[in-house]
Every structure is written in structure tokens, then in C-alpha cells.
Amino acid sequence: MSNEKKVRAYTNIALIKYWGKRDDQLILPTSSSLSLTLDAFYTETSVSFDDSLEKDAFYLNETVQDEAATQKVSRFLNLFREQSGMKAPAIIKSTNYVPTAAGLASSASGMAALAGAANLATGLNLSPQELSIFARQGSGSATRSIYGGFVEWQKGTSSSDSYAVKVDDANWDIGMVVVVVNKKQKELSSREGMKLTVATSPFYQGWIDSTAVDLVNIKNAINDRDFEQIGAITESNGMKMHGTMLGANPPISYWEPDSVLAMQLVRQLRKKGIPCYFTMDAGPNVKVLCRLSDSEKIKTAFLDYFNEDQLIISGPGSDLKEITL
Asked: Can you give the residue ranges of the Mvd1 C-terminal domain (predicted)?
């Protein structure tokens, strides 16, 4: 039996989006992506293997989960059991400090934290690169939550070279204001939305081609710490992803009226001289990339239209870390 181990992983928001898989089982993406890890949203997960258990037990936010959710976690833990030779069932306790499945990437921090805790509990002591490969097989975006700062998920050619690498610590004046339009679980999952877009959107190949260019350009901008260029590429890339979804059959839109309002407010703030840029994942919530020093001003402007609890300021998040029990 292994001692209980607990890990915290921060969520990440893609600036260059991941949208589409070339291998559903291994979760290999059709293009590389780049994200910013955020310190305001995270998941803490503990794993404890115990020979006396009959089967895995999974608790999320102190509530025991149904068979389907538990099986997903069990399949992921099997990667670690097979690698380590451990056969014991486990108790998994996870607390999400992120609204689940509402377009705020809770699966990224959730699977990254689970991977980190399983790595320690099995004694595998995988390197961050190896752990990124394991995390990817639970949730694609989780591969990036192993690291803090700006992170690139390299699409690779196979499972062994599709992993994330840190691009920059982002330990400079950069942050986000997250506008929580709707905390409810979305009707169409990212997984299904991706499949439909890849299969039916005539814009998809154009999206793939332009994303490769965006990735090169944003990495150069990060290296130069050119915030305006980082923001402009981020905003353009996110809107291209949503445009590609609108080309699917039937069309996919995660936007709500308040999503559009938030985007309009960002444009207005830019005209007033505050550099800020919006992006959206598969959900209605809007993320405003900004200088952290401008975040309070941006939040104040949004308070004319949104409630205090809908506006969350975040700085850059850090690497995966163990929580002492």
C-alpha cells in the first residue's frame, strides 16, 4: 500500500487553441497549441492506493461520483498502475476550485492534478515531460497544466513526442480578467464539438494552416515581451476557432448575449488606451488577456454590466506542486 499523496495543478487558458484530434484514444491533436497557466483556478487531488479496497472510489468536491465518472478516472489511473506494476485500487479525492465543464478548463487542472498525485503515490517519479505525456491521455489540455507560465503543447508525430514544454515563466506584467457569463455545464461537450467541427467544417484546414503561423508569431512576441502583439494574435486565433465551429454542420456556437457584450467592452477599453484582448474556449465565458497592472481598471469597467462574482482577476499560475498532508 502506498501513502496518500496530494497535488495541486492550475488550469490553463489556450491563447493558440487546441481544437481537434487526429487520434481520439491517445488524444493526439491536429495542431500544436500554446496556453497561459492561471493562478486563480486550480484543482487539488489526492490518491491513496489500498489493497483492502474492492475497487476505486472517486470523490469530487466531497461527493462520491457515479460509475461512469469513476471508470474514467480508473482508466487513467491504470496507465500508472501498469507502468509501476501496482494493482491495488485507490481512493481519489479531488476538489475543483474551477466551475466544472463551464468553459474554464477544469479538466486540464483536474487531470493534471490526478496525474501528479498518481505519479507520487505509485513512486514512479516521472519527469515533467513524461508526466505531460501521461496527463495528455486523460485530457488534452491537461498536458499543459503540468507547467506554469506560457506553455506549448507540441503536437508531435506519435504519443511519445506529443507533450508540453514551458516557453516562458510569464513572471512579468501579464494576467487575465475572467468574465464568468455562465457557470452551468455546457450542452455540447468540447469532445463532441471537436469531432463535429473536424468532420464537417469546410473552414477546418484553413484553421490548421493559420494556427501554425500564429504559433510561431506568438512565441516570437512572448520572447520580445510584446504584449500588444501577443494579445492581437490571441484574439484573432480564438475568433478563427469559433468561426471554424460556425462552419460545422449543424453550426456550433457556445456564445451567449453576455459573451458578445464582454467582447464589445474589451474593444471599447482598447479604444480608450487600455491594451486588452479577449479569447474564448468551448463555452460562453470570456477571458480578457491584459497587463496585470491594468486588471483592476478593467474589472471596474466591467462592473457596470456584470456582478462582482462574475469577474475574477488572475495572475500567471505555477508548475504542478505537491501539497503536504
From this structure: 176-309
CB contact at 8 A, 290 and 177: yes
Give the distance from CA 291 to its chain's centroid.
20
**Angstrom distance (rounded) from CA 170 to CA 148:** 8
What phi, psi does 160 have (nearest 5°)?
-75, -20
Provide the pLDDT confidence category of residue 107 given band limits of 50, 70 and 90. confident
Q: C-alpha angle with apex 281: 143 to 171, nearest 5 degrees?
A: 60
Instruction: List domains and CATH numbers for the chain.
Output: 5-170 (3.30.230.10), 175-314 (3.30.70.890)
Ramachandran assignment for 18, one of left (phi > 0), alpha (psi -120 to 50 degrees), beta (any other)? beta
Could you tell me the pTM of the whole model?
0.95
DSSP, residue by residue, 48-101: EE-TT-SS-EEEETTEE--HHHHHHHHHHHHHHHHHHT----EEEEEEESS-TT
Using DSSP, state whether 24 is helix, strand or coil.
coil
